[in-house]
Amino acid sequence: MAKISTDKAKIQELLTRGVENIYPKYEYLEKLLLSGKPLKLYLGVDPTGPTLHLGHAINIEKLRQFQELGHQIILLIGDFTGTVGDPTDKAATRKPLTRAEVLQNAKDYKKQASKLINFSGNNKAEIKFNSQWANKLNFAEVLNLASNFTVQRLLERDMFQERIKAAKPIHLHEFMYPVLQAYDSVAMEVDGELGGNDQTFNMLAGRDLMKTLKNKEKFVITMKLLTDSSGKKMGKTEGNMAALSDTAQDMFGKIMSWTDGMIIAGYELCTRVPMTEVKKIEQELKAGKNPRDIKFHLASEVVTMYFSKEAAVKAGQEFTNIFAKKGTPDDIKHYNMEAETGNFKLTGMPIDLLIDLKFVNSKGEARRLIDGGGLKINSKKITSWEEKVNLKSGDVIQAGKRKFAKIK
After folding, report:
1. Same-domain pairing of 125 and 254
2. Model's pTM, two decimal places?
3. Based on the domain organization, do 320 and 338 belong to the same domain?
4. Which of 88, 148, 211, 237 is 20 to 30 A from 312 (CA-CA)?
């Protein structure tokens, strides 16, 4: 069993950095941590996509801090709840995922999370799947769990209120989601749970169920979300979601695309730069220091954390070469159009070019990229996906901001 640390400075950092709220209260959890009692807590992640991203990493980093103090941490994969669909922040019902899709999405989660937490050693992190207990519940047991919640309580959720006002449907299985997530805490008999502040309702549902069924207090830590000053989250829609599966170059470039309003939050939530230093950086920003320079340093810190200092330096140099000097990457992909058979030859449709280069996954994505001015050949925009293009050796193709290929 790992030795429990009661280091006051580390505990204070754990309880404050990136934290929005602690339930039942800060003092309760502080006293618990200072007591030296070993704790078991978890973070739940539904596999709605094939990669974890920096939004997940904010919470996984908080798990790491608990692990560093010697406590038992669990990364729970919602392979059952993922097929139900969390209605949180959704103006419409989620498209249901099959179990096969969920498991495929989650197949690299452990590898990605291991960039932050340890799955080996004398205090190794556990990875669990909630289908292990949820699949065993019969209908009578589900009804019994549901009897601990009221419709009025579930209807308090903001997005349900918004749907009612907009005359949009609320499906019964969406009501059941927080009930099922609450049961995760009971099944694992944890002391606590942490997650993004958008999961507050679901996590508190688990806290209530623990009190009812186990007569046990469960602490909940809600973490801040990475947003800009207007409240917009980093995400897939904005195209700035830095994934843990990204290359160092892609991660660096995506962080550089963040709005200036995300800089300080980025330091607090996505780096280990001491908060005293973050405060100084915030003052420099307010005093008029170039936000681009500060963001460049932020990107370097994040890439160093997930890769290495050398990788961060190289990614920074490449970013400068591409965006400041209008150059091309040093390790640009060379593509032999004659040798690599496919639909596209030296003369052909730009959509086929993008697919052959594996720059896009579908013709629809290719059309959207071209319509948005994202395809360039030798720095010249290609504005129509219906006109043929002619290529020759030495031509450089650019898709979006970070994908390049050179014809040979």
Report:
1. no
2. 0.80
3. no
4. 237
